[in-house]
Amino acid sequence: MPRTIWSGAISFGLVTVPVHVQSATDDHSIRFRQYHLADMGRVRYKKVCELEDREVAQGEISKGYEVSRDHIVPISDADLENLPLPTAKAIEIDAFVPLASVAVRGDRCSAVC
Length: 113
Known about the structure:
Elements: E1 4-12, E2 15-22, E3 48-49, E4 54-55, E5 63-68, E6 71-75, H1 77-81, E7 102-105, E8 108-111
Antiparallel strand pairs: 1-2, 3-4, 5-6, 7-8
Domain Ku: 11-102
GO molecular function, one term: double-stranded DNA binding
Keywords: DNA recombination, DNA-binding
């Protein structure tokens, strides 16, 4: 059964319509892992600091904006949360389709093009 990825409401003046958005596709891709041919050991990715040439723990990693090669502005998660994003809680409607153009198959629904 599809999982709801967003829920909210659309308002048209005094009329409010509740909306639940579900993904329209299923993921059928194949996931591969990388192995060493000689002994079939799993190959993993290590996060290494370029300056210290040592592996870095996840807790030591942060985000930053590179202004120039020698000047990086650190960005924290709190900085990102405080950004006033107008699209953070909005969804854009491109078009409405007639109900007859939507095919329902079992517990799945898809648009007929």
